[in-house]
Design brief:
Layout (H helix, E strand, L loop, with lengths): L6 H4 L1 H9 L7 E6 L3 H10 L4 E6 L2 H10 L4 E5 L8 H11 L5 E5 L4 H9 L4 E4 L4 H29 L7 H13 L6 E4 L6 H10 L8 E5 L5 H9 E2 L11 E2 L1 H4 L4 E5 L6 H13 L1 E2 L8 E2 L3 E6 L3 H6 L5 H7 L2 E4 L10 H11 L7 E2 L1 H9 L5 H13 L6 E2 L14 H7 L4 H23 L4 H8 L3 H10 L10
Parallel strand pairs: 1-2, 1-3, 3-4, 4-5, 6-13, 6-14, 7-10, 10-13, 15-16
Antiparallel strand pairs: 8-9, 11-12
Helix pairs in contact: 2-7, 7-9, 15-17, 20-21
C-alpha cells in the first residue's frame, strides 16, 4: 500500500450501497459458497425476490467471484468437501474484505460452532432451513449501520492518516492488526518516538466493530499527576478547587468505542490500581462521586519505554502490565524498514497543498534513503513539509538547509529528545551514534573486519556482536 487510495477503491461495496441506497432495493446481491448442488438451487429458489444469488461450488471459485464483483453478503457452508473448512474461508474473507458480511450455514444446529463463527467475525449463523426473510431484515439494518461506520472511518483517515507501507515488517504488523481488531483484546503498541504508534492505534479502531463509535485518546506524559484521575475518570462539581461543574472523563466518553492511552509509562503510580480496576470491571468512580460509573470501552496503549524496566524500578505495576499486554505489537523504527521511506515521502507529498509538485527527484530519494531517521516517520514528514516551500518546479528536487539531513541528529530531533526521560533520550543518541560509527568504520576499511576492529581498538568478537545488534550482519565475516 505505497500510496493513499481513493475512498471508492478502498471501500467499494459500501460506497456502492450508499450511492445506490441498495438497502432499500430488491434484491440484494449475494454469493452462496456451497458444494451441494441440490441445496444451492433450493436456496436460490427460496431467496428469489430477496437476494440475487450467485452460486460458487468451491472456495476457489468463491474467492474469484468476490474479487471480481460487489456483493452485499456471503452465504457460506461450513462443511465444504475440501481440505479447508468454512471457518478457514471465513477467516480469509474477513482478512481481505473486512466489511463484507458473512452468514455461515450448516446442516444441523451447533452452538459451539456458532459461537466460534461469530468470534471469527461472521454476521450470522443459520441451518440449511434458513429463515430467509428474517435474515434479510437483519442484514438491511446492518447495511444501514455500515454507512455510518464508513463515514466515521473516512473522517478518521482524513484526520489521522493511513498506514503506508511496503516493507515485509509492516505487512506482518498489518496482518496482526487484522487479526486483533475484530476482538476486544487490549493492545500494547511498542515503538520509538515518531514511529507511528498513533496511526496504528487509529487503524485498529477503524478495522474494529467499534469503528462507528468514539476514538478517545490522551498522552499520559502531558497530564499532571494531580489531574490524571479527573481527566480519565471525570469529576463531580465541588470535588476540588475550581471544579465548578461536573465533567465527563475519557473513559465515559469512550463508551462503546476505543480508549487510547499514549506514553502509558508516564501514568502516575498512585492511579494505576484504579485504572486496573476499571479495565477489569469496566467500572470506576469519578473524582468526588459516590456512585459507580460503567463504560464499555476497548483499551489500546502505547509506549516508547521498556515497561519491564519500569516495573523493576517500581514505577509501573506488574499486574497492570499483564492486563495491558494481552496482544503486543512492536513497531520497527523507520531505519529498519527502508522500503517504507519513499512510499511515505510520496504520501506526505500528496497530502500537502502544493499541487504543482508531483514527484520526488532521484537525488532527493537517494538522500532520504541514506539517512538514519532518528525521529522516524514524524521527522520524515517534517522534512518533506519544510522542503516543499522552497521548490519552484513540479518536482521535489532539494532538501532545505534546516532539514538537510546531516550525518548526526538534527536540531528538530534534539527538540523532541528534550521531551523524553533522560535515559530514553540518551539511549536514542547512543544507538544513533553506534549505527553511524560502525557503518562508516566498515565502509572506510572496505568491510575488512580485522582492520575495522583494530582501528576501533576492539576485538573481532566484539565487533561481530555489535554488527549483529545493529543489523549489520551482511558484512563479510572473513578478511
Amino acid at each position: 500500500m505505497p500510496l493513499a487510495e481513493p475512498v471508492e477503491a478502498k471501500y467499494p461495496s459500501i460506497i456502492e450501497r450508499i450511492h445506490r441506497k441498495v438497502y432499500k432495493m430488491r434484491p440484494l446481491n449475494a454469493i452462496l459458497i456451497d458444494d451441494d448442488s441440490r441445496f444451492s438451487q433450493t436456496f436460490k429458489d427460496l431467496a428469489k425476490g430477496l437476494f440475487e444469488v450467485t452460486i460458487a461450488h468451491n472456495s476457489k471459485t468463491g474467492f474469484k467471484q468476490i474479487e471480481k464483483n460487489h456483493y452485499d453478503v456471503v452465504f457460506l457452508d461450513y462443511k465444504l468437501k475440501e481440505e479447508i473448512t468454512g471457518l478457514d474461508v471465513l477467516k480469509e474473507i474477513r482478512r481481505t474484505h473486512p466489511d463484507l458480511p458473512v452468514i455461515m450455514i450448516t446442516e444441523y444446529e451447533n452452538i459451539d460452532l456458532a459461537v466460534e463463527a461469530m468470534r471469527l467475525g461472521a454476521f450470522d449463523f443459520t441451518t440449511k432451513k434458513p429463515d430467509i426473510k428474517n435474515l434479510r431484515v437483519r442484514l438491511e439494518n446492518m447495511l444501514q449501520q455500515d454507512n455510518w461506520r464508513l463515514l466515521c472511518r473516512i473522517k478518521d483517515e482524513m484526520l489521522y492518516g493511513e498506514v503506508i507501507y511496503k516493507s515485509p515488517a509492516m505487512a506482518e504488523i498489518m496482518n496482526q492488526i487484522q487479526q486483533v481488531a475484530p476482538t476486544d483484546y487490549s493492545v500494547l503498541l511498542i515503538g520509538e518516538s515518531g514511529s507511528g504508534k498513533n496511526v496504528l492505534a487509529h487503524a485498529i479502531h477503524r478495522c474494529s466493530p467499534r469503528a462507528n463509535r468514539e476514538f478517545v485518546e490522551v498522552n499520559c506524559s502531558t497530564l499532571a499527576p494531580e489531574l490524571f484521575e479527573s481527566t480519565i475518570f471525570g469529576h463531580r462539581k465541588g470535588a476540588f478547587t475550581n471544579a465548578f461543574e461536573d465533567k465527563r472523563g475519557l473513559m465515559e466518553m469512550a463508551n462503546r468505542g476505543t480508549l487510547f492511552l499514549d506514553e502509558i509509562a508516564a501514568m502516575p503510580l498512585a492511579s494505576q490500581a484504579k485504572v486496573l480496576t476499571a479495565l477489569e470491571d469496566k467500572t470506576f468512580f469519578p473524582v468526588g462521586a459516590k456512585e459507580v460509573q460503567t463504560s464499555d470501552f476497548r483499551i489500546i496503549v502505547a509506549t516508547n519505554a521498556k515497561l519491564e524496566d519500569e516495573i523493576e524500578k517500581k514505577n509501573f505495576r506488574n499486574d497492570l502490565f499483564y492486563r495491558l499486554n494481552v496482544f503486543k505489537i512492536k513497531i520497527p523504527p523507520l531505519r529498519e524498514r527502508p522500503e517504507d521511506i519513499i512510499p511515505l515521502a510520496e504520501y506526505f507529498l500528496k497530502k500537502e497543498t502544493y499541487p504543482h509538485i508531483k514527484t520526488i527527484s532521484d537525488a532527493v530519494k537517494k538522500k532520504l534513503l541514506s539517512y538514519h531517521w532518528p525521529g522516524n516517520v514524524r521527522e520524515l514528514r517534517n522534512v518533506i513539509q519544510s522542503s516543499l516551500i522552497f521548490c519552484q518546479g513540479d518536482e521535489l528536487d532539494r532538501i532545505v538547509p534546516d532539514a538537510a539531513l546531516p550525518e548526526g541528529l538534527n536540531y528538530s530531533h534534539f527538540q523532541e529528545l528534550y521531551q523524553l526521560p533522560y535515559e530514553t533520550a540518551k539511549n536514542q543518541i547512543v544507538d544513533h551514534f553506534q549505527q553511524l560509527y560502525f557503518t562508516n568504520l566498515l565502509k572506510v576499511h572496505a568491510d575488512n573486519i580485522s582492520a575495522a576492529a583494530e582501528a576501533a581498538q576492539i576485538n573481532r568478537t566484539t565487533l561481530y556482536r555489535i554488527m549483529k545488534e545493529l543489523g549489520l550482519e551482511g558484512y563479510k565475516k572473513s578478511d
